[in-house]
Specification:
With 149 residues, this protein is mostly helical. The chain has 7 helices and 2 strands, in the order H-H-H-H-H-E-E-H-H. GO terms for molecular function: DNA-binding transcription factor activity.
Length: 149
C-alpha cells in the first residue's frame, strides 16, 4: 500500500498539462474536431485512413489493411462494411488465386479518396497552423520515432 505522504511527494512535481500522453490526446481531439467539421462526404477518421491507404497501396486483404493503418480486426471490419454500403470500396477476387479476396476502391471511392486527401491537407494546415514547416516536420519525425515506424 502506498502511504499518502509518498504519493504527495512524488506528485509534487507532476503537472498534467506537461505530460506528452495527455498532450497527444488533446491534440488528437483538436484535430478530430477539425476533421469532423470539415471532411467531405461525412467521412470519419478511420474511414478516411482506410480510403487513403487503399489509394496508396492498392488492393490488399482486410487483415493486411487493418495492420497498415493500426486498426484491430473488429474495427477494420466495421469500417469496411460501412464503406462498402456507401459504394466506396468492394471485395475483389484475386484472379491468380480464387480463394483470396482483396479490398479495393471502387471508381467512386478513388474520386472520394483523392478529394478527401486534398481536404485533409487543408484540415491539417488548420490544426497545425501554429507550427512552422520545420516544427511540423520535426513533430512528424518525433511521432514516428515514438511509434517506432
Amino acid at each position: 500500500m502506498i502511504r499518502p505522504a509518498t504519493v504527495a511527494r512524488s506528485a509534487d512535481d507532476y503537472a498534467l498539462d506537461d505530460q506528452p500522453g495527455f498532450l497527444l490526446r488533446v491534440a488528437l481531439k483538436t484535430h478530430t474536431a477539425f476533421l469532423t467539421a470539415g471532411m467531405i462526404e461525412g467521412l470519419t477518421a478511420p474511414q478516411f485512413s482506410t480510403l487513403a491507404k487503399l489509394l496508396e497501396v492498392g488492393p490488399c486483404s482486410q487483415n493486411h489493411l487493418g495492420r497498415l493503418i493500426h486498426y484491430d480486426s473488429a474495427t477494420i471490419t466495421g469500417v469496411i462494411n460501412r464503406l462498402k454500403i456507401r459504394g466506396l470500396i468492394e471485395s475483389v477476387v484475386d484472379p491468380l488465386d480464387r480463394r483470396r479476396v482483396a479490398i479495393d476502391l471502387t471508381e467512386r471511392g478513388r474520386v472520394v479518396a483523392a478529394d478527401a486527401i486534398v481536404r485533409i491537407r487543408e484540415i491539417s494546415r488548420e490544426t497545425f497552423s501554429a507550427l512552422t514547416t520545420a516544427e511540423r516536420e520535426a513533430l512528424v519525425a518525433l511521432l514516428k520515432k515514438v511509434i517506432r515506424r
